[in-house]
């Protein structure tokens, strides 16, 4: 049966409508659509969104298959309502050649749960010294359009300038992990009141803000577009707002955890809260929410960073940085942005699907829910309330900061080109 | 009493005074021909040192032996932070061996807290210094030294340090001693002033219960005690201050400065001292300098802490682990 009728869902949070999927395509959107020959999904009260797109995912394969693989990562993505993810380049080997990005791309195709668009490294080995073969990665089967040394900052101003200029030739974008390296030597958490008390090395906000300021000016100077990864401070928001007002072609992302959690969590010394950039203050969190609402921050990206248990079950200083996020992102956005009245569901669709697909030039994703479009769709039950239990995660790793926390909303169905990858909240 | 001693901030005023009072009793043991109490006979205490510290380890070991505990010394230098799991593994090994208390020194801030709260181990944990976070027994021995000198050995029993003015000078940023002392001295009613170049004061210090000054000279006349912190020479290469000489001129304690202190005021140092830079020999060797007393008092304080945490008084210091046995 290739026809599916989703009956009575609120499309992008609007009026309840029926959506008929035929094969890989949305065949019709309307009311009272015939269910003849179709499997029917009763979706009253649920929200139908375009399949979510994550511009910032760590799939760990190749190299750290003990943390995650393309298969387990894309299963996690489907569970979270995603139909496309951009896989960061900091694998082993680094995704800095056509060969590696094609491998990741192929593994994504084989997984079948979610489209995987590899991100290419900006510099060879993420070392910040020499440009990687950006053109070859773009020309490869993977068709790379986003380049990032994420995990490390492209801190050399000349290398950053050249990368920004170079990718213009094929419409690429450089996604910057903004972290001034000298200012963050030995950094363990946000620098401020809590770090002073805990005696943990501080990661000052200015280390992020100074790089963003430099990069938007570079982007302006050479007429390129730049994307800022995981903005985490109120000051970064101000700089991006200023840059946009000046007409600079900058886009920015925020992670779900920076919309919800603060550095107060670190008082537990539990490394599950150790992440880069670090959790900031309440004031930063509120500024990030406002900026996502008013469009200064364009998108939500998960920075899904799976780590095996042993890399977190240790003392803080020895622990790896990062949190898993694919399976909880939409719930956190619902809690922090929708239930606070800052965003409606149509705007959630923009921040989590349309805009990230546009920034990353993802083909066939982030499309309107209308006839003739690819049937990449996500159905959400916003009334659901549940306690996060990482034992049920599809991700291979369990390093979630939300364990035991109640979060709203649940992805009930995900469709990738008309094929259900999630049915009734379970992987198909 | 509390179950673990992780941070000086965890102690109430009454708990802290009780430790100081108990330490006075313990100090009397040191005056006896046979310096030993049977209090912890049959108990095993492990000194788990992931970071070198001969002075602190020996002090704990002396305290443990004077209380008749069986002592295991475990030096795991360097093996930890490179692969953090070893802390958990080590803890569980000790647990399996039936250790009754763990004294831990670790280069990573928060490691003792993790050890005490992660379910890796059931025994009481005593923090013997973690990263740049806390060193609570150092703060207690400092407070003990101040109480003896400023209030009196016998007059001090039951007393705190209300109204005493304590100045802590030097590398506050990297100092677990400074953090612990600010917390404990505030709890004990003292007024604390931190003095350091701005580069060696942590961002966020404004929430601490103390004053901050960049000028040593202006604090001398109103200090009942001046505590000098050690400045590690590698800080110079990291541009925290221009030169050793400039640091010494602005923040070093010499005879001229000591002369500006009130007559009763004491000079303290957690040791080891960098003579000539942070403190001159003239000051270090004067009878106002309490460095040697601090070392002796450290043993008494650690005896008191071990005694109280390990059920020296079973009636109000229950230790579930020992009751199970």
From TrEMBL, chain A:
Pathway: Pyrimidine metabolism; UMP biosynthesis via de novo pathway; (S)-dihydroorotate from bicarbonate: step 3/3. The keyword Metal-binding applies. Substrate binds at residues 58-60, 90, 276, 307. The keyword Hydrolase applies. It catalyses: (S)-dihydroorotate + H2O = N-carbamoyl-L-aspartate + H(+). Its EC number is 3.5.2.3. Zn(2+) 1 binds at residues 56, 58, 150, 303. Keywords: Hydrolase, Metal-binding, Pyrimidine biosynthesis, Zinc. One of its GO terms (molecular function) is dihydroorotase activity. The active site is at residue 303. Its cofactor is Zn(2+). Zn(2+) 2 binds at residues 150, 177, 230. Residues 45-233 form the Dihydroorotase catalytic domain. Binds 2 Zn(2+) ions per subunit. It comes from the Bacteria. SUPFAM superfamilies: Composite domain of metallo-dependent hydrolases, Metallo-dependent hydrolases. NCBIfam families: PRK09357.1-1, pyrC_multi. Belongs to the metallo-dependent hydrolases superfamily. DHOase family. Class I DHOase subfamily. Catalyzes the reversible cyclization of carbamoyl aspartate to dihydroorotate. This is Dihydroorotase. It comes from Streptomyces zhihengii. The lineage of its organism: Bacteria, Bacillati, Actinomycetota, Actinomycetes, Kitasatosporales. The gene is pyrC.
From TrEMBL, chain B:
L-aspartate binds at residues 83, 176, 230. InterPro entries: Asp/Orn_carbamoyltranf_P-bd (IPR006132), Asp/Orn_carbamoylTrfase (IPR006130), Asp/Orn_carbamoylTrfase_sf (IPR036901), Asp_carbamoyltransf (IPR002082), Asp_carbamoyltransf_Asp/Orn-bd (IPR006131). Pathway: Pyrimidine metabolism; UMP biosynthesis via de novo pathway; (S)-dihydroorotate from bicarbonate: step 2/3. Keywords: Pyrimidine biosynthesis, Transferase. It is an enzyme of class 2 (transferase). Residues 3-147 form the Aspartate/ornithine carbamoyltransferase carbamoyl-P binding domain. It catalyses: carbamoyl phosphate + L-aspartate = N-carbamoyl-L-aspartate + phosphate + H(+). Residues 163-309 form the Aspartate/ornithine carbamoyltransferase Asp/Orn-binding domain. HAMAP family: Asp_carb_tr. Catalyzes the condensation of carbamoyl phosphate and aspartate to form carbamoyl aspartate and inorganic phosphate, the committed step in the de novo pyrimidine nucleotide biosynthesis pathway. Belongs to the aspartate/ornithine carbamoyltransferase superfamily. ATCase family. Heterododecamer (2C3:3R2) of six catalytic PyrB chains organized as two trimers (C3), and six regulatory PyrI chains organized as three dimers (R2). This is Aspartate carbamoyltransferase. The lineage of its organism: Bacteria, Bacillati, Actinomycetota, Actinomycetes, Kitasatosporales.
